[in-house]
Amino acid sequence: MRVRLASSPARPDRPNEDFVAAGPDVVVLLDGAGAPPGTPSGCVHGTAWYARSLGGVLLAEIVPERSLPEALGRAIERVNGLHGDSCDLGHPGTPSATVTIARRHGGMLDHLVLADSVLVLNRPGGELVISDDRLAITSKALRKSMDALPTGSTEHTTALRSYVDSLASYRNQPGGFWVASTDPAAAGEALTGSAPLQDLDEVALLSDGASRLVDRFGLLTWAGLLGLLRHNGPETLLAQTRAAERDDPEGRRWPRSKTHDDATAVYWALRD
Fold this sequence. Notes:
By secondary structure, the chain is of the alpha+beta class. It has one domain (2-267): PPM-type phosphatase domain (Phosphatase 2c, domain 1, 4-Layer Sandwich). The chain has helices at residues 47-61, 68-83, 134-142, 144-147, 154-168, 208-215, 222-232, 234-246, and strands at 2-8, 18-23, 26-32, 97-105, 108-114, 118-123, 126-131, 191-196, 202-206, 263-269. The longest helix has 16 residues, at 68-83. This is Integrase. It comes from Actinomadura viridis.
């Protein structure tokens, strides 16, 4: 398999809360759901630790005889045990993460997408874009007041804290959205599917910080993003994303919770 990947933290003084890894015939990408600094979480380890821990355990749990939701559920359960007695797993701010998996198995490419990262499958007839939009639907009304304020301002920071607090009550609830955290049952809510390998040319996995040139900024199409990854690599995609963000630091053109986000992109060429 030929895989290229790149990851960039939102800020150099804060840990990257994305996680990405590739093993034989599988790629795993997680985007930790970070909260504003000082927000209580009930966990002494932090979001970056959670994303790394869950990602590493998940990679080990993905074996041929196991479905992807089963592997994710087992990984969530195992990481619950890693928290230890020092963490309150019932706290609404307990760390969580999106999960995106692509696995080559038995002539098929299996996938799993949980929460708002993006998987793009390139087929001869065009791109198939898979993203879980339940978070976007749930958050649309909750974030209106925040999006009307300049990103980074004191007022925006206050509104962001309120938004995060409000969103917590919808997490892993029917009618809300689902994400990997402490409940293994969330794995069963993921979007899953399979496609014949013979019908696919390439695959891209993107955290929402890396997909925003298309789905938030509208500066690229999905075909253009795949072409950029194919010819220039994930590093170039992330560099162009950072350039666009710097051109709109206060989020006036593209409202968002923070000027920069952790960004991770994976390009997997399925044909040599």
